[in-house]
Automatic annotation (TrEMBL):
Involved in control of chromosome replication initiation. Inhibits the cooperative binding of DnaA to the oriC region, thus negatively regulating initiation of chromosome replication. Inhibits the ability of DnaA-ATP to form a helix on DNA; does not disassemble preformed DnaA-DNA helices. Decreases the residence time of DnaA on the chromosome at its binding sites (oriC, replication forks and promoter-binding sites). Tethers DnaA to the replication machinery via the DNA polymerase beta sliding clamp subunit (dnaN). Its cofactor is Zn(2+). GO terms for biological process: DNA replication; negative regulation of DNA replication. Its main location: cytoplasm. Zn(2+) binds at residues 85, 87, 103, 106. It is found in: Cytoplasm, Nucleoid. This is Replication initiation control protein YabA. Keywords: Coiled coil, Cytoplasm, DNA replication, DNA replication inhibitor, Metal-binding, Zinc. InterPro entries: YabA. GO terms for molecular function: zinc ion binding. It comes from Ligilactobacillus pobuzihii.
Length: 115
């Protein structure tokens, strides 16, 4: 059986542990609250970015449709704009254009008339 002093000490330690637990719970609640707010902000920002991306894709699609390029020519145009040859003159296809210089042969492959 515990004497009065041990009983009091145990009860005092239990009170201190309860106070520590309350502080830990409060800190955890603050962290969760912050994370929920941050998550909501990021979801809204993500939604705005997706809407903006859709707008840009729609503009690009309408631009490409206005130029009348087929999907394969659009892919070639994209490669060309990234700095690569798309013509097969002197086996240049796929090689990097020096200083992104224009290439009339590549442009003919992309924009030229086909029979």
């Amino acid at each position: 059986m515990l004497d009065k002093r041990e009983l009091y000490d145990n009860f005092d330690q239990l009170g201190k542990k309860a106070d520590e637990l309350r502080l830990t719970i409060g800190d955890t609640q603050d962290s969760i609250r912050y994370l929920i707010e941050k998550n909501a902000e990021l979801e809204i920002e993500n939604q705005h970015l997706r809407e903006r991306l859709r707008e840009l894709e729609d503009k690009t699609t309408s631009k490409n449709n206005a130029t009348g390029l087929s999907k394969s020519r659009q892919n070639l145009e994209k490669l060309y704009e990234e700095g690569f040859h798309v013509c097969n003159v002197d086996n240049m296809y796929g090689s990097r254009r020096i200083n992104d210089e224009p290439c009339v042969f590549c442009q003919d492959v992309i924009y030229g008339e086909r029979s």
